[in-house]
Prior knowledge:
Strand content of chain A: 25-35%
Largest sheet of chain B: 8 strands, parallel, barrel
Strand order of the largest sheet of chain A: 4-3-7-1-2-6-5
CATH topology of the largest domain in chain A: Rossmann fold
Order of helices and strands of chain A: EEEEEEHEEHEHEEHEHEEEHE
CATH class of the largest domain in chain A: Alpha Beta
Radius of gyration of chain B: 18 Å
Largest interface: A-B, 32 and 34 residues
Shape of chain A: globular
Number of helices of chain A: 6
Structural class of chain A: alpha/beta
Low-confidence stretches of chain A: none
Order of helices and strands of chain B: EEEEEEHEHEHHEHEEEEEHEHEHH
Oligomer: heterodimer
Helix content of chain B: 25-40%
Structural class of chain B: alpha/beta
Largest sheet of chain A: 7 strands, antiparallel
Number of domains of chain B: 1
Low-confidence stretches of chain B: none
Distance between the termini of chain A: 32 Å
Amino acid sequence: MKKYQLNLVLTQVEPLNERYALIKARPQEGPLPEMVPGQFAQLRIEGSATTFLRRPISIHFVDEAQGEVWFLVQVVGDGTRRLVSMKPGDVLDTLLPLGNGFTVPSPDDGPCLLVGGGVGIAPLLYLGACMKRSGGQPVFLLGARKASDLVELPLFRRYGPVHVTTEDGSMGEKGFVTQHSLLQAQRFAHISVCGPGPMMKAVAAYARRQDIACEVSLENMMACGLGACLCCVEDTQHGHVCVCKEGPVFNINQLKWQI
Amino acid sequence: MADLSVKIGNLRLKNPVMTASGTFGYGLEYADFVNLADLGGIIVKGTTLNPREGNPYPRMAETAQGMLNCVGLQNKGVDYFCTHIYPLIKDVDTAMIVNVSGNSPEDYAACAARINELPGIPAIELNISCPNVKQGGMAFGTSPEGAASVVRAVRAAYDKTLIVKLSPNVTSITDIALAVQDAGADAVSLINTLMGMAIDAERRKLVLSIGTGGLSGPAVKPVALRMVYQVARAVHIPVIGLGGISSATDAVEFLLAGASAVQIGTANFIDPSVSVKVVRGIDDYLVRHGFASVQDIVGLL
C-alpha cells in the first residue's frame, strides 16, 4: 500500500481516563488514504526535549463518513503527554498507513475472538468494525488492571459482544483474559491479539493448544517505521525481520516464541 | 538555480546530497516520500560477503537529540544483493552506492569484486568503522595500518570509485584519513557513529542487547563538523561529510568545513523527505549569497 506523509488537523482530543486519550483527525487537504486494521502511523511530536523519534501509534478506527482517523493514546512519557495535550485545530505530521494489518477471516469460518489488553485494545475497534462489515461475528475479550482502565466499551459493543476481565475484579471476571470462562464456553475459528507481551504469549499458547489460528500485533521499539533502519526486528522462522514492515501483525507460527 | 553538481573521484553527482547507509534502506523504502532521482546519491545498506543476522533485539535507544543503534550489519549477503536487490535499483536515476563491510581484508575484497561487476553501481563505500560487530568493522578503522590493509586489498579488486567511511572513535582521525588516501581511496566519508551506551535506571539494565551502540543524530553534529574540518585540511582527496545533518543549513556548514558532498542519515527517520528539502535549501543558500556553484563554497571559511 502506498504510504503518505500527511498533515492531519485534529478535530477532537478527548481524555478517556487519567492515562488514555482519544484523538480524532482529518487530512489538512485531500482524502484520507485507505487503511487496514492493525496498521499504524508514525506521529511527529514537537516541543518535547526528550522525544527525538516519531511515535508509532495504532490506527484505532477509521470513520469514513467523517473522513477521520482515530488514535487511542496512552500517556507513557513526555512525548505522549505532549500528544494528548494538543488541541483541536493543531496539525500533526504523520506517516501512514504503515505495516501489515490483521487478517479479516471469511465469515463462513465462524466467530472470531479479538483479545485486547491495556492500550492494546486500540487496533481491535477498527478490526471488529471491518469484520462485522464483511459479515463476520467478532467477539471482544478485553482485559485491564481495573475497571477505569477499560474505555470505549459502548463503541466496541456496536460490533460484537464484549467480555471483560480485570485483575482486581472491579469489572467483569476477575483475573487475566486467558482465565475468562468464555474460552471454555465457546470455540472460535480465529484469534487476533494486541496487548502486553506476557498476555499475548499466554493467548498464543492457548490458541496453539486449541489449534486455533492466531495473530498477534507486536510493538518492538522502532526508529524509522519503514523497514530501513532494522532496529525493531523480531526473531522469526525467516530470521530477523522488521516488525514495522513485515508486521506489526504476525501469525504466531511465524514467531519463535517458546509457548 | 546554482550548479549543484560535484565530483567524487570519477563519480559525478547531480548534487552533493546523498543518504547515509543504514538509514535509507535500498532507497525503495522511501520512494513514496521522495523522488529518488532528485538525490545526489543513495548509499545502500551495509553489505557483507556472507549473510548476517545482526545483533539480537533490542538494537535501538532514543537519546537526547539522537539515537543509539547496534543493528550489527544485518544483511542477506552480496549474492542476494546482486540477484534480488540490484535488479530493483539499477535503473534508479541517481548514484546507487553500496556500503561494503567484512571480517578480513580478503572478505572486503571478495565482496567488492562482486559489486565491481555491476554496471549500475558506480562506487562503493567501505565501512571500516562499524562499532557494532565483534570482528572487522571498527577494528580495522581504528589504526592507520589496519585501515590501509583493507583499502589496499579492496583497491586491488575494485576499479571504480572507492569511498572509505571513517570512524570517529579514534584519537586522530586525520592519521587514518591519510593512511587510506595513501592506500588508494578516492574519497573519505565521515563520521560513522560515536560509540555510546544507554542504561535503564528503573530496571538496572543495559538497554541495548550488546551493551554499546553507535550514536547518531543532531547530538553528534559538532563532533562531525570538527572532524570534517580537520580531515579536509589534511587530505587532497574529496571528503564527504555526515553526522547529524537535518537541514540545509547543517549541510552548508559541512560544505564550508571542507566537505565536497554530504550524507543525510538519522534525519530520514524524523522526516522521510528531508533529503530533497536539503537539496533545495542548498540551492536557495547559493542563490541568496550569489554563488554560481556549490563547489565555490567547499572549504570557504
